[in-house]
Every structure is written in C-alpha cells, then in structure tokens.
Amino acid sequence: MSDALRAAELAVEDKQQLAAAAQRLRLPELSADIRFADSKKTLAIPLGPLEPLAAQYGIDSPVVIENRSWRTRPILQATLPLYSGGAIPAQQRLSAAAVQQAEAERALQADTLLTRLVQAYFGQSLAERVVAARQQAREGLQQHLADTRRLKEQGFATQAQQLQVQVARDQAEREFQRALNDQDSARETLALLLRSAPVQTSTPLFVLPEPIAAREHFRGQAVAAHPQLARLQAIVAQSREGVRLQQARQRPTVFAFGQYDAHKEDATLVEPDWALGVGIRYTFLSGGRSQQVAAARARSEQAEAALREVRVELDIAVTRAYAAMSNAATQFTLLQSAIAQAEENLRLQTLSFREGQATSLDVIDARTALVGAQVARAQAAYQFDVALAQLLEASGGSGEFPRYAELPDRIDVQ
C-alpha cells in the first residue's frame, strides 16, 4: 500500500475517534481531587455577655483558637452539562464534518494514486512497444546492410550506399539502446509505485473506438461525485459550525454538580460532607469575542468561494481530458492506416532495391517511416489511456478505469 494512502486512512481514523469523543460530551465528568496539605485554622470567638466573667479568670475576648495539622482531602466531584448554549451540538456536527473531509481526502489520494499508477503501468507498456519497434528497425536495417554488401560485391551497389546503410543501422542501434534504458526506468518506476519487484504488464495499451459517453455526462458526474467537492463541502459545514460554536460561547451554560468528601474526618468546619446542586456560568467580558465570530464567518465565506472555484476547475479539467482522449483516439485511428501503408511501402522499396530499381536511401526512409508510425501509434494509445484516467479522476470515477479497460470492443496495441 502507498504510504500516502496509508497516511490518509490514518487521518480518517483520527477524525473518527475525535467524532466518537464528541458524542460523549453530554455525559457527566467525574474527577477526584486529592490533596495532602499542612493547614492552619484560626477561630476568634467573642464572649459577649460572658466577657466580664471570663476576665476574672484571665481569659481575653475574643477567644482565639488555632488548629494546625496535616490533612488528607480526597474530594470526588461530578459535573453534568444541562445547557451549553448550543456549543455541544455544534462541536458534534463539526466533528462529523471533519470525518467527511478526511474521507474525501482519502478518496482524493486514492484517485491521484490510481492515475499515477495508470501512467506508470501503461508507461511501461509503451516503453516495451517502443523497444519492440526499435529492435525490429535495427534488425531490418541489419538485413538491409547485408543485402547492400552482397549487391556491392556483385557490382550493383556502391560504397556510398553501403555507408548510408551503415550510418542508418548505427543510428537504429543507438535508438534501440535508448529505448532499452527508457524501458528499465519505466519498470523501476512501476515497481516503486507498487512497492514490489519489477512486474510484467498483462493489459496492453488500448483505445476504445467509440466515445465512452458524452462530455456532459462526465461534467455532471464531477458535480455529483468528485471527492474534492465533498471535501470542500465538509469544510464549509465545519466553518458554519465554527460560527455557531463561537456564538454559543457568548451564551450562559447550565450544569449540575455533585461533591462528596471521602475523608470527612479531616474536613474543616466550613467544608460540607457532600453537596448537590445546579450552577450557571456566564462570561460577561472576554477579549475579542466579536472578532472571533467575525473570523469564523470569514472562514465560512472563504470555504464557499473555494467550493465555487473548484466547480469551475473541475469543469475545465473534464473538458481538457475529454478533448485529449478524443484527439488521441483520432490520431490512433489515422496511424492504423499509415502503418499499413508504411509496411507496404517498405516491402516494395526492399524488393525494388534488390532488383536495382531503388536506392538504399529509399529503403532507409521507408523503414524510418514505418518505425515512426509504429511508435506514434503506441504513443497515441498511451495518451488515450492516460487521458481516460485523468477524465475519470476529474469526474470522480477513477474506480471505473478497470471496467473500461476490459470492454470487449477495445483495440489493443500488440
């Protein structure tokens, strides 16, 4: 699995856990406060009417009593929110929207990786087809060189013609070696994406002869299913809940509370053994509260503007990918007939050269035209496959690529 996709999945898990925690915000909060303290308590007791009598015994009024001791104070406390001003439901909805955002980002990452995989997979197929074409050209020119040498020995070819073929054969060798290097690079790239050893591709380059659907279909699909829109819609929802959350913080909160002294022996006279009640908390003054609400509204408007912009960008992406796919299919069809003509021309030029009716340069040109058409056809098929993947990604349907690749009417590049 891709590390990027794994990171996206962990992000989803993170948001899911936070959302689950937000669902428990209405539950009571239990805590224990345990203190070990050296304390001193001073009491002043006025004697009142007894003051004259106490004075006879040398007792001053008021009577001061001091008590100093180490005390253990374990206090159990419970708090239950009754009214949060709307903060708790806003936080819960915000957490749920964060999960939706993370899931959309995971889908985006998966779509991006699938497009990269298509590029690498069919890039390897393209490199293998180019190697096959370059090898065929090299072997053909090697045979042509042998024919030229034989004709030269028979006096039907010149030294200049032999040199022409030698130069063309050497050029074909260089192009073949370059194609081998490109093939090695393509195989390594695919292996790295798959986190595996180099693999052999089983699905060849292909082109679909008929349009798979109208462009409007993909434009509508993009608006309905693209994860980028789902991501921004989730961000918009979060920003709106952020506004409600800031507004809720300006309202009072109501809570029930309970307290129990687990070690009453060390309690002071003014500390209760237990207490139950209802409390109200309201913040009268807190710096920047209005600015925080305004900032939340600005974030909400920013997210909505980004959502509108992405709709336009997706429309553009669908239009470009659809045009690229259609153009590649057209080029592929035209090159089909061009290859047939180039093969026939090479056959005729080769026969003519052997009979002394054509020059070695005619044969070289014919073979160069053939290999050029073969490579161009493979490139057109590759461009079609990549454009199809990009079109599906732009319309939110990347997972449909394998289905299109298995359609029975596809034309494979063998």
Automatic annotation (TrEMBL):
Report which superkingdom the organism of origin falls in.
Answer: Bacteria
Could you list this entry's UniProt keywords, alphabetically sorted: Cell outer membrane, Membrane, Transmembrane, Transmembrane beta strand, Transport
Q: What is its main location?
A: membrane
Gene3D superfamilies from the xrefs?
A: Outer membrane efflux proteins (OEP)
Task: Write out the annotated subcellular location.
Answer: Cell outer membrane
Q: Which family does it belong to?
A: Belongs to the outer membrane factor (OMF) (TC 1.B.17) family.
Which PANTHER family did the record assign? ABC-TYPE EFFLUX SYSTEM SECRETIN COMPONENT, OUTER MEMBRANE PROTEIN TOLC
**Protein name per its UniProtKB record:** TolC family protein
Specify the species. Tahibacter harae
